[in-house]
């Protein structure tokens, strides 16, 4: 669990810790990164690290949550004309976070993406309810399913060598959903 308050110094220290972890990940795998490695790269003391985070994995959770806050600000502007645009936006933005995504994928931690999305599901749910006139309950299922797709897609994208474009990913997701629909309704 992380304990980063809204205090500017705490937020800045947390950002420096993420940047230190990011530098460490360029040199070694996540499992080999020690807190002392992060301290060395971030110039943040061990005491500050433990004041803000309980573990290295918590730094990843915090970074995902911070990134999702940025996504939420963009989503709340209401600039998405369709659910397709919203889904493609999510995929596109997550794929830009290459160091974070690689750390999550290589360490079987993409569940953090799911948890981050589910913590923030209200806004996504509101968009789907508005667009499709779904009930609250139906939208809850839809958001959970779509949220589950994102970590899965990122795992496959990573295992394919990070070569597919956002459009290709979207096409493959749509095709897969169509197959699921056909199989379940046959």
Q: Compute the average pLDDT.
A: 90
Poorly predicted regions: none
Largest sheet: none
Query: What structural category arises from helix and sheet content?
Result: mainly alpha
What's the total number of strands? 0
Order of helices and strands: HHHHHHHHHH
Structure description:
The chain is globular and about 55 Å long. α4 packs across α7, α5 packs across α10 and α8 crosses α9. With 186 residues, the protein is mainly alpha-helical. The chain has two domains: 47 residues, Arc Repressor Mutant, subunit A (Orthogonal Bundle); 123 residues. The protein contains ten helices and no strands.
Label this structure with key terms:
single chain; 186 residues; mainly alpha; Arc Repressor Mutant, subunit A
Helix-strand blueprint:
Layout: H1 8-25, H2 35-42, H3 46-52, H4 56-76, H5 83-96, H6 98-106, H7 111-119, H8 121-132, H9 136-159, H10 166-184
Helix pairs in contact: 1-2, 1-4, 4-7, 5-9, 5-10, 7-9, 8-9
């Amino acid at each position: 669990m992380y304990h980063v308050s809204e205090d500017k110094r705490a937020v800045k220290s947390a950002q420096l810790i993420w940047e230190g972890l990011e530098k460490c990940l360029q040199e070694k795998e996540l499992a080999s990164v020690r807190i002392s490695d992060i301290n060395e790269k971030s110039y943040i003391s061990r005491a500050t690290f433990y004041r803000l985070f309980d573990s290295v994995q918590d730094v990843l959770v915090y970074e995902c949550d911070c990134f999702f806050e940025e996504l939420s600000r963009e989503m709340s502007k209401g600039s998405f004309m369709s659910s397709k645009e919203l889904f493609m936006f999510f995929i596109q933005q997550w794929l830009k976070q290459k160091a974070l995504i690689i750390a999550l994928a290589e360490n079987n931690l993409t569940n953090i993406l799911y948890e981050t999305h589910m913590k923030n599901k209200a806004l996504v749910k509101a968009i789907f309810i508005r667009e499709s006139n779904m009930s609250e309950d139906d939208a809850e299922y839809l958001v959970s399913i779509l949220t589950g797709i994102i970590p899965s897609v990122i795992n496959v994208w990573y295992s394919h060598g990070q070569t597919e474009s956002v459009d290709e990913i979207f096409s493959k997701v749509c095709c897969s959903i169509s197959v699921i629909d056909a199989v379940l309704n046959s």
